[in-house]
Structure formats: structure tokens, C-alpha cells
Amino acid sequence: MDKVVATAEEAVADVPDGASLAVGGFGLSGVPNVLIQALYERGVSGLRVVSNNCGALDCGLAVLLSAGRIARVTGSYIGGNKEFARQYLAGEIEVEMIPQGTLAERLRAGGAGIPAFYTPAGVGTQVAEGGLPWRYDGSGGVAVASPAKEVRDFDGTEYVLERGIRTDFALVRAARGDRHGNLVFNKSSRNFNPLAAMAGRVTVAEVEELVEPGEIDPDAVHLPGIFVRRVVALSPEQAADKGIENRTVSV
């Protein structure tokens, strides 16, 4: 039952080239930076990533992206990541953009064993009708476009069929975790981390505070340990290393 491994390098040692990864985080909140850095140092490439965004400010997945280690991204937000946008438009990376709520539910459904579901999000758009550019050819043309999806009428309202997502591995970050893998997330980091953890066949969690089993109130657990295979305890310095994406000043 003790799922703690000594280092982040050991925790991701079996992630191969071309693996699919569900990665938690929302902006710079709750991003498993230490595990991502361990993957970078291993030289793993050709990764197929499922994440809300693909890193920012040279943090998180931006480390792998800038090194050309990511082949495909399924996400909902490019945002201010200029390198992500450049690679996408240059045809260097394949990108499946889907509505943010749909992405969250596709991860949750995959983790819950639900193969597909219907949602009204995207009906009447290219999300349902197909034709969204997944990969450009580098000259402004579309090399790979999204396929059309099934649309059905339920009680007079149209819904599009979306498939659940399962990945080979998942990397997440939690505020607290015990040796059994039970996790607690802090505020916005709870948006995608639990869902990504559910979707991974092998889920690795880096935790800012490692506690003994029983120290977390069962009612406070956000993700049960059944979904987690490995736990890495961060050092105080690693736990405190958190970036700020947008600084604002008020007077």
C-alpha cells in the first residue's frame, strides 16, 4: 500500500517515447513541474499530451514543448504561449482544441469507465461538423482536419457525441497526499488534476506535503488513492516554487 517512490526520476522511469499523458494544472496552478522536468531530463519524446493548456512562461509542459518533445496536444487553451502557437501554425505539432468543459468531462468519463457521452457544447460548430485544423502543412493549408461527430436529438435538443479519454500515464500535483495515494488539492489546482489522475492508467502524483495514512480526514479527500500508483514527496523548496502568470497592481 505504500506508494511513495524516492525520486521523480524513478517515478517516471517507465514512460516511453510516444506515450500518452494526462497532465493536471490550470494555468500555472497545480502543475506537476517536478515530474515534467524529470521527463525532460530523461529525453522522452513524441509525447501525446492531454491538458487544459500546454504550459506558460517556460514552465510546466512548455519545457517539453520548447524542446520539441510533444507530438500532439488535446486541450482547450493556447493562451499566451507563443511557442505553442508557432509550432501549431508551422505544422510542427498536432492540436485538438475542444471546449474546456468537454475536456474535463472526457477525462472524467474515461476515468469512470464511460466510453462516450452526449453534450450540447459544440453543436452547430466545427466541433461537431468537423473541419477544425488539427495540423497545418506549414504553408497555411490544413494537413489534418477534425472528423465530423455524431449528433442526435434528445427531447428537441441536439447533442454531439464525445468520447471519454484514457491515457497511458497521468502526472498531477497535490497540496497534500498520504502514502496510500489519497490526495487533497488546493483551490484552482482542483480544476483538472483529479480528472487527469482518473484518466491515467498509471498515475503519478507529486505532493507538497506527505502525511501518514489516517492524517487526512476521509471527508477531505478529493481523489481516492485507488486512482494513484506512485507518490513523490516534494522538498520544501520544490513545494514553494510557484510562478505567477499575470501580475496586477492596484492603487
Written account of the structure:
The protein is α/β, with parallel strands linked by helices and 251 residues long. 22% of the residues lie in helices and 28% in strands. It is built from eight helices and 13 strands. Strands 1, 2, 3, 4, 10, 11, 12 and 13 form an eight-stranded mixed sheet that branches. A three-stranded antiparallel sheet has the order 5-9-8. The protein has a two-stranded antiparallel sheet with strand order 6-7. It starts with 7 loop residues before the first helix and ends in an 11-residue tail after the last helix. Keywords: Transferase. Belongs to the 3-oxoacid CoA-transferase subunit A family. GO terms for molecular function: transferase activity. This is CoA transferase subunit A. It comes from Streptomyces broussonetiae.
Overview features:
251 residues, alpha/beta, 8-stranded mixed beta sheet, 3-stranded antiparallel beta sheet, 13 strands
Q: Radius of gyration, Cα only, in angstroms?
A: 18 Å
What percent of residues adopt helix (DSSP H or I)? 10-25%
Termini gap: 52 Å
What sort of overall outline do the alpha carbons produce when their principal axes are compared?
A: globular
Class from helix and strand fractions: alpha/beta
What's the SSE pattern?
HEHEHEHEHEHEEEEEEHEEH
GO molecular function, one term: transferase activity
InterPro entries: 3-oxoacid_CoA-transf_A, CoA_trans_fam_I, CoA_transf_BS, NagB/RpiA_transferase-like
Protein name: CoA transferase subunit A
Keywords: Transferase
Summarize the topology.
Blueprint: H1 8-11, E1 20-23, H2 33-42, E2 47-50, H3 62-66, E3 70-75, H4 82-89, E4 94-97, H5 100-111, E5 116-119, H6 126-129, E6 133-136, E7 142-145, E8 151-154, E9 157-163, E10 167-178, E11 183-184, H7 193-199, E12 200-211, E13 230-233, H8 236-240
Parallel strand pairs: 1-2, 1-10, 2-3, 3-4, 10-12, 12-13
Antiparallel strand pairs: 5-9, 6-7, 8-9, 10-11
Helix pairs in contact: 5-7
